Amino acid sequence: MTTPITTRLDPATLEALDRAIEAGIGSTRAAIIAEAVREWLELHGEEAIAASYRRRYSTPDTKDADLLARFSSFSVAACLAAKKG
Questions:
Q1: In a 3-state reduction of DSSP, which class is residue 82?
Q2: pLDDT tens, N- to C-terminus, the chain (85 residues)
Q3: Quick check: 29 and 21 in contact, CB under 8 A?
Q4: What is the C-alpha separation between 36 and 32, in angstroms, rounded?
Q5: Are the CB atoms for 48 and 42 separated by under 8 Å?
Q6: Are the CB atoms for 21 and 27 separated by under 8 Å?
């Protein structure tokens, strides 16, 4: 069972929907919109977001590790020098 919703779309969007129907992409405006919402939810759902993070951060980025180590060492040395003075 489906639940109807009310939405306002600008004329250009409606024209694009109608062209999509004429091209056979969907049978009705509602069908095209419903499919678009399903696709959007799949891309932006919790599992998709978690999978994206797993792909992005699965291996540590060591590109700047040496630079970070140098800054850390400098910071520690600067703090210790400040304490002595």
A1: helix
A2: 889 999 999 999 999 999 999 999 999 999 999 999 999 888 888 888 888 888 888 776 677 777 777 777 777 777 777 776 5
A3: yes
A4: 6
A5: yes
A6: yes
Inter-CA distances, 69 with 21, 59, 61, 64, 78, Å: 59, 19, 14, 9, 14
d(C-alpha 20, C-alpha 16), whole Å: 6
Phi/psi class of residue 24: alpha, beta or left (left: φ > 0; alpha: ψ in -120 to 50)? Answer: left
The amino acid that residue 84 corresponds to is K
CB 26 within 8 A of CB 32: yes
- Report yes or no on whether pTM surpasses 0.90: no
Look-up of token digits 């929907």: 17
Give the relative orientation of helices 29-44 and 46-57 as an angle to the nearest 10 degrees.
Answer: 40
